[in-house]
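Consider this today:
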Amino acid sequence: MYNSGYMAPEYAIHGQFSVKSDVFSFGVLLLEIVSGMKNRGPVLPSQSVNLIGHAWRLWKQGIPLNFADECLEKSCVKLEVLRCIHIGLLCLQCHADDRPNMSSVVIMLSSEGVLPEPKEPGFLLEHVPVREASPNNHTALSNNEVSLTLLEAR
């Protein structure tokens, strides 16, 4: 499956760019900073989701602080980490209209006001591992019936 990295869904899929596309990128960056992980491939070997999916899963389970990097545990204010995760998820909304603009993000980061509940983010990717062929397993992974013609000059 496709992994967008920092690209907003509307840009990666339809080529449409707006100021809200940058907000999506900022949301990914914010989650990377809080978690200490990159948004590439599965987050943990035991899980099949990317960083965004991991953050969303923990948010929905009611344990979002489990998303934070362990090195932050003793040196951070837990409410600030929770707020950063919350804002990161708000920035990652699937539809650009649902995302805040950057000036709102700055206000949210610098204030203690109530934040809206995030909706399911865009690009919740599930990593499907590729099965490697073993010598005992002769099953074809695809059915490619292409013929090749080689042209040779006289």
